[in-house]
Amino acid sequence: xxxxxxxxxxxxxxxxxxxISGSKQQNGAxxxxxxxxxxxxxxxxxxxAQPADLLSPxxxxxxxxxxxxxxxxxxxxxxxxxxxxxxxxxxxxSRAIRVVSRADPDYPRRFKAKLGLEAPPLLYGSGTWSxxxxxxxxxxxxxxxxxxxxxxxxxxxxxxxxxxxxVISGAAKGIDRSAMEGALSSGGRAIGVVADRLAQxxxxxxxxxxxxxxxxxxxxxxxxxAGFNVGNAMQRNKLIYGLADAALVVNADYEKGGTWNGAxxxxxxxxxxxxxxxxxxxxxxxxxxxxxxxxxxxxxLTTASDLITFLKKIHPLESVTTGQKREELLPGLRxxxxxxxxxxxxSSSDDAGATPSxxxxxxxxxxxxxxxxxxxxxxxxxxxxxxxxxxxxxxxLKTFVEQGVLTVIKRPxxxxxxKN
Length: 420
Hints:
This protein is of the alpha/beta class and about 425 residues long. The protein has helices at about 5-15, 35-45, 60-65, 70-80, 80-95, 110-115, 145-165, 175-185, 200, 205-210, 230-235, 235-245, 255-270, 285-295, 305-315, 355-370, 380-385, 390-400; strands spanning about 100, 120-125, 135-140, 165-170, 190-195, 215-220, 245-250, 275, 295, 405-410, 415.
């Protein structure tokens, strides 16, 4: 395995991962759901503690302090799965599968910035981890597509390769896999967000070769041995969009299937990635309805130069890195300031003096905070959530308090969405 597992990640694995050994999931206490883990993490922060403290000598006192909000017997039973954890970690290591948690510095900052508390607590993967911070074009579609659309997906992958843009997809049979294969066969890079059997996916011959050449990363928020589950397949869609600068839906079945649901969720609710739909004279009803819902028609891009110019024009999202300077993702393309993209809305009088870019940024931050501050957070916690300096967080928080978007709670000073 690349890198050791941190103590925080060990604790999160014990609490929130099924730890499937072989082909079977062990019986015992029910693992924490994402919502339950988020609540536990919040309570730990309030006590200036972290998950690793639940494995320390101070754990009994900490658990006793949590007993009014959690079944501490359940937590103790989960935390006692140390031997099982050592078994699955050894299995993952033998296949070069890495695991990181939201508590680790290597966790994708795009997920934290775009998804907030919807970002999965754990992420498993094998391949070039740095690809997670480079952005790219998401190319998605249904499993059942005609030959013309399969060829289009492959050509789009090849165009991305020539432009130096990574293809991000779900690695499922059909459009997703065709786009990834088009990129990899042309010498490009790809990220596959796998919904099931990650441990099996990484040992296929083509995957092994591309991983060895540092051109492919396969990741999953689900246990590497987990089988197919419709709910999991739906949930991973937000991760595909979360890594991308823009997304292309090649084809979608109207009102059914993961491609449709993922695109609609992005257009209507998450809105952190521009969604485009392939549209020619034979456009499917699904894609037509996506455009009516807010997706944009995909332009006819046939060359690498066209794609680069296009991505410059739509101002792709900055890959939310640690802030350290690195090479530009595309030739001649400067990274934009941090924000998630939200389709511009009519500006209020409070934003009247701002430039269009500033208004868009303020609107984006406002939307994130309205979504995330349903529970009070301190200025420092907001800065961490947005991956920005505390001084900038203070400025934005003051603005939104003055606008009535947020309310201040004293002792200690925290911020929460206004109820009016």
